[in-house]
């Protein structure tokens, strides 16, 4: 089937304004008759729930943590982009739009990206009004820094804790609505199914993580704002609880999963230290503003203390390979370059899996105080984990799974192919194409939540009759029974391997065979091994305790079961996409110099997969991508 | 990667099935811990052992494991988050311990934080305090340019110092009176320091202090244990500022 994104046509500058005018409105007095479920309270969900509550809808919001303030958006360090052009360095909405399309390797929709760039400026204003303490200069003006993939300085930041401050802003707006009674907050709830009544999304099934009760909630629309899925690699920069579960359950109810193979490997993370490790820690991309990446030129120098290697024997490989962007090359490119150096035997640290990020020159130029002022908390974090002082000795870095560009397919209104099911933030696939530029996920989450969904959801609700909150329809009962049955099954297997062991094994397969470099052979291997591992899981997993109590192993078991299904889809998508683009690198498709070779003739489309059952092949639906404003070109950062 | 020396650690852990269970300490031994294990990774090792022997693993809250979400909450050898300066328990590393050490692990203890399971407590009272006024009542949209309000760097920086609070509740756990003054003071101060927060300053501080009392948090008697327990270095000067704001609000 050919999918239609329902993008407005005409001059790109007018698309969003025109579309907003064309959308139907719900009259103010009728809004309170409509119920909206928002799953997730990160930047996307927090902003959406607050804004929809404020408009007068009845909102029910859910998160799995003990408070909406803890969503993983909190961990974002570096910053948020906007096209304010405050530094007067040539930025504009058009340039942000252009950079994002190009950065995404021409695999995103133009209209969606335009809208994102257009509302980016409103986001900064909104956050300032909320009291987000963005960095300021002495005169009191907002400060900016540079980020990868752009030659202008458009990133706003709050020390190294931008995500935290933006999330606390959204959380404060949400708290205000909870107090006002327009939003009812459900903490420690995990959505374990989407309820679809007559082809329309009408609610969700959750587990109360404290009591273990299976609960049903009904509404006129469901917004999934449930974040990304890179924990499918087991070790990633995501929080321990991040999962594909909400998205995958929706996919199993018919929502199409778009471009799952577009995963971002972040170039600067602290290298893995041992097998017991539970997660990887990111060091913000902003560090590449002042840090220079290098490895020894000579293999025999790799074991030396970095200070013993003279400048002439260091290979500043990003500056060498990409002179115009240098250390600020986009993430996919910087990650692959780091891997190349290590594969060449010139990596440093344990297992030779590391490159240096060196602040020596910047400290000489600017002084250690300035560096500390800019990145102090990151240096602190690095030292806590590695016991090494980044001011004195270059940091060691290695790429790690970080972000998912793929996600549930949505049209221009952020609605999936299931009417009434909306998907926001990292959970959808919409604006980043095959690679996301730094500081643009925060922007997208808040754009979707504050400035897109409040309009587009009205366009949908104006066409449906209020459903109410009763959950007596047979579909709700069936969903609750299915969820309970799956849990009972997990608890009854009583096998020999723990959930972590399975997750580690799956993660290993995904990282080795479907990580930074993918081939037909490696992917086919995974398509054999993952179903086998899944089968073993359902025979041999051990989960202790019961379902009727607080049980974190049971939570993890459910998430792992979903990753074991979803991982296969990710590999299948990667196998079908016979090209290299953005974060998806197929070794068969590269130029002589190792750069990615895109195939626009055959693959300039969004690949959206329809679930057909675990033992059946999913069906691929395509949404062709058209580029009317940005010329389709080979992406170059040289 | 297995060339590290390993440690054997004795653990004394608070086990409590749910809020109604009286709870008690249990002893465990974990082996094969290296200096690079984080504290929570050491607990992961314990839990894997427990599961394999058919026992219930220890419940503990955690999510980001990098010191920012505020989810982790354990009293380690009597100190919230283990007592290292500016360190959450998820950032604590086993290099701070020695082979053969005995470590006591308990949940946050405060009337306002009922125990959910083992080391997991219910901290919704902190949300209730924020709901009482920890915000600027601006609507989405229709807002002036971000540079329309000038905020000199020192004010922005001080507001940011207060805003670094991660809402973990260690200040409450560390306080002999279970007061939430540092947490509340940080939010009141952040907004009081910024021009955006001025309009509602009086109502905000009154309502938040009121909510704090209603939730069952105690009073401040200047022990400064909160600051010592705080993994984000939130300074007690913000309590003083809240007190000033509170007095101002009476007139
Ligand atoms: C370490 C790190 C640093 C980053 N730095 C930057 C940066 O500097 N700039 C930038 O632009 N981006 C950055 N990013 C990316 C960005 O932070 C995220 O993409 C973005 O915050 C995601 O927001 P979200 O609202 O979509 O999801 P999240 O913030 O992940 O929120 C997901 C929400 O869904 C809930 N949830 C999930 N599943 C369920 C379920 N089944 N049931 C109930 N609730 C559920 C969770 O409780 C949570 O509330 C960074 C990411 C990481 C990991
Ligand atoms: S003030 Fe410190 S200890 Fe208290 S909640 Fe905030 S971060 Fe935690
Ligand atoms: S787990 Fe997030 S702060 Fe410790």
What would a concise description of this structure say?
By secondary structure, chain A is an alpha+beta fold. Chain A is built from 17 helices and 19 strands.
Describe what this molecule looks like in 3D.
Chain A contains 17 helices and 19 strands. The mean pLDDT of chain A is 96. Helix content of chain A is 37%, strand content 14%. Chain B has 9 helices and 7 strands; from the N terminus they run E-E-H-E-E-E-E-E-H-H-H-H-H-H-H-H. Helices cover 35% and strands 13% of the residues of chain B. Chain B has 2 domains: 7-117, Beta-grasp domain (Ubiquitin-like (UB roll)); 123-249, Orthogonal Bundle (Fumarate Reductase Iron-sulfur Protein, Chain B, domain 2). In chain B, a hairpin with a 2-residue loop joins strand 3 (75-76) and strand 4 (79-80). The chains are: A alpha+beta (638), B alpha+beta (251). Chains A and B meet through helix 3, helix 5, helix 6, helix 11 and helix 12 of A and helix 1, helix 2 and helix 3 of B. FE2/S2 (inorganic) cluster binds next to loops of chain B. Residues 62-65, 67-72, 88, 90 of chain B line the site of FE2/S2 (inorganic) cluster.
What key phrases describe this protein's structure?
heterodimer; A: alpha+beta; Flavocytochrome C3, Chain A, domain 1; five-stranded parallel β-sheet; 37% helix; B: 251 residues; alpha+beta; Fumarate Reductase Iron-sulfur Protein, Chain B, domain 2; five-stranded mixed β-sheet; two-stranded antiparallel sheet; 35% helix; 13% strand; elongated; binds flavin-adenine dinucleotide; binds FE2/S2 (inorganic) cluster
């Amino acid at each position: 089937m050919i999918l239609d994104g329902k993008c407005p046509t005409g001059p790109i500058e007018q698309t969003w304004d025109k579309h907003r005018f064309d959308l139907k409105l719900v009259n103010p007095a009728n809004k309170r008759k409509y119920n909206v479920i928002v799953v997730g309270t990160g930047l996307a969900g927090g902003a959406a729930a607050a804004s929809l509550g404020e408009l007068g809808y009845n909102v029910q919001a859910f998160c799995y943590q003990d408070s909406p303030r803890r969503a993983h958006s909190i961990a974002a360090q570096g910053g948020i982009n906007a096209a304010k052009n405050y530094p007067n360095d040539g930025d504009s909405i058009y340039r942000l739009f252009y950079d994002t399309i190009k950065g995404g390797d021409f695999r995103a929709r133009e209209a969606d990206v335009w809208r994102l760039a257009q509302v980016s400026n409103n986001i900064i204003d909104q956050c300032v009004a909320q009291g987000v303490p963005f960095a300021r200069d002495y005169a009191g003006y907002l400060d900016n820094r540079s980020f990868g993939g752009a030659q202008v300085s458009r990133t706003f930041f709050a020390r190294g804790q931008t995500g935290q401050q933006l999330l606390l802003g959204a959380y404060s707006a949400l708290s205000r609505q909870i107090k006002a009674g327009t939003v009812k907050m459900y903490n420690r709830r995990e959505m374990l199914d989407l309820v679809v009544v007559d082809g329309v999304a009408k609610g969700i099934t959750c587990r109360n993580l404290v009591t273990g009760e299976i609960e049903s909630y009904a509404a006129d629309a469901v917004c999934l704002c449930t974040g990304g899925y890179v924990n499918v690699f087991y070790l990633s920069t995501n929080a321990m609880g991040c999962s594909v579960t909400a998205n995958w359950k929706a996919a199993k109810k018919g929502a199409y999963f778009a471009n799952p193979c577009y995963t971002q490997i972040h170039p600067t993370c602290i290298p893995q230290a041992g097998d017991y490790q539970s997660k990887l820690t990111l060091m913000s991309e902003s560090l590449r503003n002042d840090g220079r990446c290098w490895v020894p030129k000579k293999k025999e120098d790799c074991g030396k203390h970095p200070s013993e290697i003279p400048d002439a024997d260091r290979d500043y490989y990003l500056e060498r390979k990409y002179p115009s962007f240098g250390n600020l090359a986009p993430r996919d490119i910087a990650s692959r370059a780091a891997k190349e150096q290590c594969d060449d035997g010139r990596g440093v640290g344990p297992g030779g899996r590391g490159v240096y990020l060196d602040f020596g020159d910047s400290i000489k130029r600017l002084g250690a105080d300035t560096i500390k002022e800019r990145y102090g908390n990151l240096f602190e974090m690095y030292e806590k984990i590695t016991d090494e002082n980044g001011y004195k000795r270059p940091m060691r870095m290695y790429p790690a799974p970080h972000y998912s560009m793929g996600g549930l397919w949505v049209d221009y209104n952020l609605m999936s192919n299931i009417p009434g099911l909306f998907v926001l933030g990292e959970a959808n696939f919409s604006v980043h194409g095959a690679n996301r530029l730094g500081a643009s996920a925060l922007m997208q989450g808040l754009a979707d939540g504050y400035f897109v969904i409040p309009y587009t959801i009205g366009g949908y609700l104006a066409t449906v009759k209020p459903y109410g909150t009763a959950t007596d329809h047979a579909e709700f009962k069936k969903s609750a029974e299915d969820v309970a049955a799956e849990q009972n099954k997990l608890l009854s297997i009583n096998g020999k391997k723990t959930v972590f062991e399975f997750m580690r094994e799956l993660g290993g397969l995904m990282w080795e065979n479907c990580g930074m470099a993918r081939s037909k052979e490696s992917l086919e291997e995974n398509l054999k091994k993952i179903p086998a591992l899944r089968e073993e899981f359902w025979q041999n997993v051990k989960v202790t305790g019961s379902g009727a109590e607080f049980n974190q192993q049971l939570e993890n078991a459910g998430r792992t079961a979903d990753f074991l299904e979803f991982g296969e889809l990710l590999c299948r998508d990667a196998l079908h996409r016979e090209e290299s683009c953005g974060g998806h690198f197929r070794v068969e498709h590269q130029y002589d110099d190792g750069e990615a070779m895109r195939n626009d003739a055959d693959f300039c489309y969004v690949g959206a997969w329809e679930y057909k059952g675990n033992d059946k092949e999913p069906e691929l639906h395509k949404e062709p991508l058209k580029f009317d404003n940005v010329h389709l070109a080979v992406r170059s950062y040289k | 990667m297995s060339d590290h020396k390993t440690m054997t650690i004795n653990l004394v852990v608070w086990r409590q099935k749910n809020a109604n269970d009286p709870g008690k300490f249990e002893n465990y031994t974990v082996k094969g811990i290296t200096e690079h294990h984080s504290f929570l990774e050491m607990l992961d090792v314990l839990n894997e052992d427990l599961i394999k022997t058919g026992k219930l693993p220890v419940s503990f809250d955690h999510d980001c494991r990098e010191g920012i979400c505020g989810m982790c909450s354990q009293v380690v050898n009597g100190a919230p988050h283990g007592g290292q300066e500016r360190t959450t328990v998820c950032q604590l590393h086993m290099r701070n311990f020695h082979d053969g050490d005995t470590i006591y692990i308990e949940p946050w203890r405060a009337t306002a934080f009922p125990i959910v399971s083992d080391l997991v407590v219910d901290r919704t009272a902190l949300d209730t305090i924020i709901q009482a006024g920890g915000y600027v009542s601006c609507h989405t949209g229709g807002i002036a340019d971000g540079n329309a309000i000038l905020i000199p760097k020192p004010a922005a920086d001080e507001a940011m110092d207060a805003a670094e609070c991660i809402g973990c509740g260690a200040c409450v756990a560390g306080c002999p009176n279970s007061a939430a003054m540092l947490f509340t003071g940080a939010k009141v101060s952040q907004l009081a320091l910024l021009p955006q927060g001025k309009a509602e300053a009086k109502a905000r501080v009154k309502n938040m202090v009121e909510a704090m009392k209603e939730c069952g948090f105690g009073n401040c008697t200047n022990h400064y244990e909160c600051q010592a327990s705080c993994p984000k270095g939130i300074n007690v000067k913000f309590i003083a500022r809240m007190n000033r704001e509170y007095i101002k609000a009476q007139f």
